[in-house]
Write a structure and sequence with these properties.
Helices cover 57% and strands 1% of the residues. The chain is mainly alpha-helical.
């Protein structure tokens, strides 16, 4: 009986060797395990499927999301885009392939198809300047520069390239500097300029009237630059330009209501059609579209 109680109280360690092994296993092995874990976490070469310390997630938000959020908060409000003013101008073919081909290759939205002489014929008759003006400022479903951002000469070159493929014989415009040099070389020496007469008081008084004239076409200009993208084809429920049935219920609500929608947006249309135009110009564009539907 006493031998059994004595054996029960002695425990599993009965010799000094067993004690030493137990100490090693209890302290030394965990230390090496911790060192190995630290090395694994800090190592750059981890096996596929390992957990990266810089990809932890907390509530579905990763460390990358946090870094992006910080970058968005500290980034500058404005930015400056520096363009090379001396870069070589693109050819008409290059501008066509970069911008115009989307509509003109397939004849989308009424665009004259590239190489279609019957479609380009009536347009060629209007003259090169008229075609360039339409390309620069937009016409019908086509926005200004077809939504691109090119030099005016580059746009004119693209017009010449497309029109010539449709039967015209326009000369592709030269770079402005080269054209000016050619003109100066061909022109004879000019006489001394005549003295500038003193401005009379009467024309000065009429200046406000002359300044107000461009405002009359502000509505049409804004329509061709911005509104035409949706209203020409009735995109996203926009009342189609000149469609009396579509515009009738809106006009019946009164012009203040129509102005309010144009200024502050409604449905898929953002405020001011997404432009930065003044309130007066937006109202002028509304008047232009409403008058076309009466």
């Amino acid at each position: 009986m006493s031998d059994t109680l004595e054996e029960a109280h002695t425990g599993p360690i009965k010799t000094p060797k067993q004690l030493l092994v137990t100490v090693v296993l209890a302290f030394v092995v965990p230390v090496f395990a911790i060192i190995a874990l630290v090395y694994f976490v800090t190592s750059e070469n981890k096996p596929a499927g390992s957990i990266h310390a810089d990809r932890y997630t907390l509530g579905g938000v990763t460390a990358d999301d946090v870094q992006r959020g910080i970058a968005e908060r500290i980034r500058k409000v404005g930015s400056v885009e520096i363009r090379d003013a001396n870069r070589p101008l693109l050819t008409g073919e290059q501008v066509f392939k970069a911008q115009c081909t989307t509509c003109h290759s397939a004849g989308l939205a009424g665009a004259p198809k590239f190489g279609d002489a019957s479609a380009w014929g009536p347009r060629i008759k209007t003259g090169f300047d008229a075609l360039v003006n339409s390309a620069l400022h937009g016409k019908n479903a086509m926005p200004a520069q077809s939504g691109g951002d090119f030099n005016d000469t580059e746009v004119a070159r693209a017009v010449a390239y497309m029109a010539n493929a449709g039967g015209a014989h326009f000369t592709e415009p030269a770079a402005p500097a080269a054209a000016a040099a050619t003109t100066e070389a061909a022109a004879p020496a000019a006489a001394a300029p005549a003295p500038t007469p003193v401005a009379a008081a009467a024309p000065a008084a009429a200046a406000p009237v002359a300044a107000a004239a461009p405002a009359a076409g502000a509505g049409q200009a804004l329509y061709q630059q911005v509104c035409v993208a949706c209203h020409a084809a009735g995109v996203a429920g926009a009342p189609k330009f000149g469609d009396k049935a579509a515009w009738g219920p809106r006009i019946a609500e009164g012009m203040p209501a129509v102005y309010n929608i144009a200024l502050h947006g409604k449905g898929a249309m953002p405020p001011k059609g997404g432009s930065s135009a003044s309130d007066a110009d937006v109202k002028a564009a509304v008047d232009y579209m409403v008058n076309a539907a009466k």
